[in-house]
Automatic annotation (TrEMBL):
This is Uncharacterized protein. PANTHER family: PEPTIDYL-GLYCINE ALPHA-AMIDATING MONOOXYGENASE. Keywords: Glycoprotein, Signal. InterPro entries: 6-blade_b-propeller_TolB-like (IPR011042). The lineage of its organism: Bacteria, Bacillati, Bacillota, Clostridia, Lachnospirales. Signal peptide: none annotated. GO terms for cellular component: extracellular region.
Length: 595
């Protein structure tokens, strides 16, 4: 077995940083709560938790005493009063604890082993004598439980609302409006709901299941919380903005992204998460993408911050696929900007298709993949328009595929194509994640073969990127099935769920999202791993190298390209280099791997 001799990061694309950015003690703040002029900060990037004294501007570690759960999986910390907090902690065990501000456990309010009606809590708040829990979609011991809201009183379930995954995809954040209704943030379906105790949806904001940046739309919101003046503040996370609604769900204010003369985003937020409203109407925001917590006025003026001061310029927004077009250019699906661009290593854009700034009737809607065709045309997975487009360099549509046809003449509608691979004989291998299959089709939409299960009859669940090596073996990752599959010409060859190295260290997959299979090694990403999320293995399925995340350097300044946030696509760039789309960091990263 060969060892990896070198793994280093060469270049960032799509982002421009100040050359010397000081190291931030905070890496990825995902949750904040205020009490007695202090903030609790849950930092998912460094797996640490902090207390920040606002008056003294002093940051200290939060002492979670006697907590047996893995602290890097703490979900939320809700203020209960009298310096007590409600903590939703770890995947194992899944508990809700009441602790004091020294970290001492006062009592356990929930244990998933005792209350069967709740499986996977992500947040809990108290209102009077009630505990309100946001419970995630889960499958435990073969039992499916959809996402929902559960209310406990004296350890008994007295109310729950589980409308089904078509109505509620994920209860990410909850709050109580005027003591009568529950405000629910649904990140997966891009909406905020207001639900009363009769289980009626009083109002909603966002177009359910359809992300967008127009007003009336949301894209991956992480928090909707009542303000000090009884309005509702929404962190519209992927749109990098904060919206304010009145109690009837109508838009009354916003803090929007700031763009420079080249339309690059320069602030004030990048992927804002939880918001805290102060009595003077200022807001404290977990500015996750900028590695900081900031206090802003209602007009967006930064008053103070903890963490990173300098904000980089960002030219991309949640990029997905990458393909090299020549020595120094890449074709990129700039997904959240609803466009496909050709960009070089200096962030110069040479070609663009789509409408980054369109208000309505954009040409593309959430394009996840763009590939070069054999005739220099561009093949685009226009995912939320449920189609594949083939366009030329002038932007003329050559083909549009919305349905594919099997040998019996039956049509299958495309639902959400995540990846396309163009073969040497000018057919397309497509991955439809929503329908959970991989198929080879021609430009007329005729199916050559279609695979939706492995050789044991285990069906695909959420296939993502597909890669083909020189012997025409295809490799595809399935993030919910939690496996990597190999197949050729529609026949499944094998399934991988874990890897072992020469010292018998085993890594089990948790959420594989991207893969690049070459003649010597395979590189894949596993986005739910906390310690590393890029992994290399050889042709014998031996683990060679987990690529660890780091976020500091020896000279006290940030190494800005040493930590991957959410790698979603990997392609080979040269003999020893690869390009990765680091989705949530809004960038492409070029890495070198030498074995």
């Amino acid at each position: 077995m060969k060892d990896v001799k070198c793994c280093r990061i060469i270049k960032e694309i799509g982002i421009e940083r100040i050359k010397k950015m000081k190291i931030s003690p905070i890496d990825k703040p995902v949750y904040i709560e205020i009490y007695n002029n202090k903030l609790i900060i849950i930092d998912d990037g460094k797996s640490q938790n902090w207390i920040f004294d606002i008056q003294e501007q002093k940051l200290t570690r939060f002492p979670f005493i006697n907590m047996k759960c893995d602290t890097n999986r703490i979900k939320s910390a809700h203020k209960m009063g009298n310096n007590e907090f409600l903590i939703v902690c770890g995947n194992h065990p899944r508990e809700i604890l009441c602790i004091d501000d020294t970290g001492k456990i006062i009592k356990k309010l929930f244990d998933s082993n005792k209350i069967n009606e709740v499986h996977w809590p992500s947040m809990a708040i108290t209102y009077k004598d009630y505990v309100i829990i946001a419970d995630q979609e889960s499958v435990i011991d073969g039992e499916y439980l959809s996402a929902g809201i559960v209310i406990l009183h004296k350890d008994k379930v007295i109310w729950q609302w589980r409308p089904g995954k078509e109505i509620l995809g994920e209860a990410t954040y909850i709050d109580v409006l005027q003591g009568k209704e529950i405000i629910i943030t649904d990140t997966i379906l891009h909406q905020v709901l207001c639900v009363d105790m009769d289980k009626n949806i009083v109002w909603s904001y966002g177009n359910r299941g359809r992300p967008g940046s127009n007003f009336g739309y949301l894209s991956g919101p992480l928090c909707a919380r009542c303000s000090s003046r009884n309005t509702v503040l929404i962190s519209d996370t992927r749109n990098n903005r904060i919206l304010e609604l009145n109690q009837e769900g109508q838009l009354i204010g916003s803090i929007l992204p700031i763009l420079d003369e080249e339309r690059a985003m320069i602030g004030p937020f990048c992927c804002p998460a939880v918001i805290v409203s102060l009595p003077n109407e200022n807001l404290i925001v977990a500015d996750t993408g900028n590695n900081r917590v900031i206090c802003v006025s209602k007009t967006g003026e930064v008053i103070w911050y903890i963490g990173q001061k300098e904000v980089p310029r960002r030219f991309l927004s949640f990029p997905r696929s990458i393909e090299k077009t020549d020595d120094n250019k890449w074709l990129v699906a700039d997904t959240n900007n609803n466009r496909v661009i050709e960009i070089d290593a200096n962030n110069k854009i040479y070609w663009s298709y789509g409408d980054k700034d369109a208000v309505f009737n954009a040409k593309l809607y959430w394009p996840r993949c763009a590939r070069m065709g054999n005739n220099e045309d561009i093949i685009i997975a226009d995912s939320l328009n449920n189609r594949i487009l083939v366009v030329d360099r002038l932007g003329k549509t050559l083909y549009e595929i919305s349905n594919i046809i099997n040998r019996n003449g039956c049509t299958i509608k495309l639902l959400d194509v995540h990846d396309i691979y163009v073969t040497s004989h000018n057919t397309l291998i497509i991955v439809d994640s929503e329908s959970a299959y991989v198929a080879e089709i021609d430009y007329s939409g005729s199916i050559h073969w279609l695979v939706n299960q492995d050789s044991n009859g285990i069906k695909f669940r959420d296939p993502h990127q597909v890669s083909m090596n020189k012997d025409n073996t295809l490799t595809v990752v399935d993030s919910i099935g939690i496996w990597i599959l190999e197949f050729r010409s529609g026949t499944v060859l094998g399934r991988i769920t874990e890897l072992t190295d020469k010292e018998n260290m085993t890594i089990k997959f948790s959420c594989p999202k991207a893969i690049c299979d070459t003649e010597t090694i395979t590189v894949y990403s596993d986005i739910f791993r906390m310690d590393y999320n890029l992994i290399v293995y050889d042709k014998n399925k031996n683990l060679l190298f987990p690529i660890y995340q780091e976020s500091s350097s020896n000279d006290g300044y940030v190494n800005p390209i040493s930590s991957f946030h959410d790698p979603r696509f990997i392609v080979k760039n040269s003999e020893n280099s690869y390009v990765i789309s680091d989705y949530s960091a809004h960038r492409l990263v070029v890495i070198e791997i030498v074995i």
